[in-house]
Amino acid sequence: KCLLFFLLIHLYYRIFRTDVASVTSWLAPIIWEGTFDATLIDFIYKQQNLSIATTVFALGKYTSFLKDFLESAEQHFFVGFRVHYYLFTDLPEEVPEVKMGENHSLTVRKVPSLNRWQDISMGRMEILEKLIENELAKEADYIFCLDVDTKFYGRWGVETLGHLVGVIHPWFFDAPRDRLTYERRPESQAYIPAGEGDYYFTGAAFGGSLEDVHHLTKTCREQMNIDAANSIEAIWHEESHLNKYFLYNKPSKLLSPEYLWRDINAGAAQIKIIRFSHVAKNNADVRPNP
Ligand code: UDP
Ligand code: MN
């Protein structure tokens, strides 16, 4: 009876959101506030003792974002479920001490410094590929890869789990297709011709099953290597390659921009709750190069 009650509430909410699309043309759900019942799905997923690997990179001055990122994650990110953070940094001594919640743990990995932020950002794909390949097989069921210049403000839970999960970029969720900033030079492997493309996804958050994210990171890494050999770098770096990947490997679940907003102070009618957001940052202050 209880389950039926929850299902009815769930259905009601699905019908309730008429201001946004809650499904793609290939029938993948798009997760917005009001399209799921948190209590119900927590109850369902609790039966499965799942483990979620979560990767974050903080090199150079980006270590200053770690405290807020980790503390806020511990308030909102998969609370009550198993989470293992893998933190990659060139400055392990600057990693703050943050108290982990029950069943949450953090592993710090040292990586070499790089002097171009673009290389740091793109280099994540290969490190993730190798992490999944070499270590995660028996450790985790799902993985999320997140930017560090961010903060959590609301629930990010099991409603986000799926085989291949992309987050709609907060600047383009209501933009027409011709304004999406895909790579438009045919010389790049990230090229998407005019008239193609469904959504524009952020490179700051993506995830899914180990197998699917391994294939994603491997493919993006290979495509970026081909670009490098041809002396071309996609306009938005690995984000461009991610968008190309998602065009031909459709995500099984999309997260609305509630799951990566631009800045806590920016609003939009469709955004009923900001769960995770980029923090305002001065690029010149934190990046090693322009
Ligand atoms: N990053 C880093 N150190 C740097 C530059 C980038 O650790 O000097 C990592 C960090 O995890 C950051 C991600 O790469 O969140 C992407 O870079 P950034 O956030 O600057 O890109 P944006 O979100 O502004 O496009
Ligand atoms: Mn960022």
UniProtKB/TrEMBL annotation:
Keyword Coiled coil among record annotations: no
Binding-site residues for Mn(2+), renumbered to this chain: D147, D149
Cofactor annotation comment: Binds 1 Mn(2+) ion per subunit.
UniProt keyword list: Glycosyltransferase, Manganese, Membrane, Metal-binding, Signal, Signal-anchor, Transferase, Transmembrane, Transmembrane helix
GO biological process: carbohydrate metabolic process
Binding annotation for an alpha-L-fucosyl-(1->2)-beta-D-galactosyl derivative: H169, T181, E239
Principal subcellular localisation of the protein: membrane
Residues reported in the UniProt entry to bind UDP-N-acetyl-alpha-D-galactosamine: Y62, D147, V148, D149
Localization annotation: Membrane
Molecular functions (GO terms): hexosyltransferase activity; metal ion binding
Pfam families, per database record: Glyco_transf_6 (PF03414)
Cellular component GO terms, alphabetical: Golgi apparatus; membrane; vesicle
Entry cofactors: Mn(2+)
Residues making up the signal peptide according to the UniProt record: 1-17
Record bears the keyword Transmembrane: yes
Active-site residues, record numbering mapped to chain: E239 (nucleophile)
Superkingdom field: Eukaryota
Membrane-topology descriptor: Single-pass type II membrane protein
Family per similarity comment: Belongs to the glycosyltransferase 6 family.
Protein name: Globoside alpha-1,3-N-acetylgalactosaminyltransferase 1, like 4
Organism classification: Eukaryota, Metazoa, Chordata, Craniata, Vertebrata
